[in-house]
Design brief:
The chain is an all-alpha fold and about 130 residues long. The chain contains 7 helices and no strands. It starts with a helix and ends in a 6-residue tail after the last helix.
Length: about 130
């Protein structure tokens, strides 16, 4: 909230380098880092000063509500059996559909007890499958 509303980079504030960026904030700021650039304090400040533009015209309470809504959405999408389901989809592709050059989502879902759409999109996005 401090980064968005005030435009300040949170720092650790203790130890040998008290201006060192907070570890959690650093991981977040890296998402906005231009390709090929290293994260230094000056670049982090520039990035953080622009975060408020995503919430233009909102006060602090509205920004907080939006962020909490996004957190609830992320929690609702959490699936503890995600890796097992990905392995099952890959197993179907390797064993059941390996002789076919092309397949459809319905072909995969026939072998599974859940919808494999989400997991197929993941495999395509990461480059394991191609269209």
């Amino acid at each position: 909230m401090v980064m968005i509303c005030n435009g300040h980079v949170p720092v650790v504030g203790v130890g040998k380098n008290p201006q060192r960026i907070n570890r959690d904030a650093e991981a977040f700021i890296r998402y906005f880092l231009p390709k090929g650039q290293k994260l230094v304090t000056a670049v982090a400040r520039k990035i953080v000063k622009h975060l408020h533009l995503a919430f233009k015209g909102m006060d602090t309470a509205e920004v907080y509500d939006v962020l909490m809504g996004l957190l609830v959405d992320a929690i609702n999408k959490y699936d503890p059996g995600y890796t097992v389901k990905v392995r099952r989809v890959v197993g179907v592709l390797k064993h059941e559909l390996s002789k076919q050059k092309q397949f459809r989502l319905a072909d995969i879902n026939r072998h599974l007890d859940f919808d494999g759409n989400r997991y197929l999109r993941l495999l395509c996005r990461t480059g394991f499958l191609t269209r």
